[in-house]
Amino acid sequence: xxxxxxxxxxxxxxxxxxxxxxxxxxxxxxxxxxxxxxxxxxxxxxxxxxxxxxxxxxxxxxxxxxxxxxxxxxxxxxxxxxxxxxxxxxxxxxxxxxxxx
Length: 101
What we know:
about 100 residues, alpha/beta, two-stranded parallel sheet
């Protein structure tokens, strides 16, 4: 049972409308900046992706949406998909072309 549903606005088309049930709240993912995983104090603007070749590394459901987001920001992604909720280790990314997003 749930008191409310938090739903990705882009994914709601796949979920049928229901009468009754808990209230639904929509959210939209809005990227803000690129932040270095190994140094969260270091960041770059999303504009820096314009025309850049990047390796898009994912461990999420529907990774194509992430790739489409990068393309929408002007990046040229080379996707490397790992399973949803993948527990990454250093060897997973050690030999992937840089930069990684």
